[in-house]
Amino acid sequence: MEMKWEGVMPAVTTKFTRTDTLDLEMFEVNINAQLNAGVSGIILGGTLGEASTLTDEEKNTLIQETVRMVNGMVPVVINIAEQTTKGAIAAAHKAEIFGASGLMMLPPMRYKANDLETVTYFKAVAKSTDLSIMVYNNPVDYGIMVTLDMFEELLSINNIQAVKESTRDISNITRMKNRFGDRLKILTGVDTLGLESILMGADGWVAGLVCAFPAETVAIYKLAKAGRIKEALAIYRWFLPLLELDITPQLVQNIKLAEVATGLGTEIVRAPRLPLSGEERKRVLKIIEEGVKTRPKPTQI
User: Fold this and answer.
1) Integer-rounded Cα radius of gyration of the chain
2) Which family does it belong to (predicted)?
């Protein structure tokens, strides 16, 4: 399926049963909600997907089942977060075999590669596959900044086509647009900069709270792109306290708790993660409950 790096692409959570197996039934409930809301793609295996806790067999199952569930409606994108070039190439090959349309790629994990090593890593994986690639640029969390000069080199490879822009520097979108135009598609990766990034020219939004609130997330994107800024802003202002749940170390627990409130998931996480408890649980629940209570009506979306 042709990969278009635009629109809202949820980084979906992985659902588990109480016996710590994949909960594919609830997972499909969420995927269908995303599709019904009009998302442009599904991204598997990111931080929200608890990919670091999944076995290879579970990852294979998730890819194949998601491809089956979407049934060609939208592309399926696989996140690659590997420690070695060899491992990343193998993961890309597996994604291609199982029907993925694109890859979201982090720099090498654990080892803090220098600029040359990082560029060489991305190029090697890109040359090994026909899949379209979005580079995940998140120096805040992963310690490696992919600079504009590095992107200049990377864009010599045709299937490196997009960036998940998570530097938290909103002006970086303008820098990229000025330098690369439409050659590099830009998707914001920070929920609390979603609308701002779209207004600055981002082509899409890799979203987290969309897992619990798909219609509202897609509405903000579509309204902003249509120039209906006042309407987009009204929804976004309601949404911001919820979006802030995406920028903490417990984002998985937070978003899964929000999914419970909207009927799109459970709060079961895989150890070492634990469900929220105590005062933090009360704080997050208060935010979610207020958000659900004041949620925009469908006629406002």
Assistant:
1) 18
2) Belongs to the DapA family.
Q: For the chain, what are the domain ranges?
A: 7-300
Distance CA 291, CA 301 (A): 15
Q: How many residues does the chain have?
A: 301
Beta strands in 60-110 (DSSP E): 76-80, 102-105
The architecture that CATH gives domain 7-300 is Alpha-Beta Barrel (3.20)
**How far is the CA of 101 from the CAs of 42, 67, 97, 144, in angstroms?**
10, 9, 10, 26
Which residue, 173, 178, 180, 176, is CA-closest to 199? 173
- Going 141 to 55 to 213 to 254, the CA torsion angle's sign is negative
C-beta of residue 79 within 8 angstroms of C-beta of residue 106: yes
pLDDT tens, 65-92? Answer: 999 999 999 999 999 999 999 999 999 9
Q: How is residue 294 written in tokens? A: 């004041």
Q: What is the DSSP string of 242-288?
A: HHGGGSSTTHHHHHHHHHHHTTS------TT-----HHHHHHHHHHH
Nearest-10 crossing angle of helices 56-70, 85-97: 40
Provide the greatest CA pair distance for the chain. Answer: 51
In Å, what is the CA distance from 186 to each residue of 50, 204, 215, 285? Answer: 24, 7, 22, 33
Sign, Cα dihedral of 85, 90, 92, 93:
positive
pLDDT of 301 strictly over 80:
no
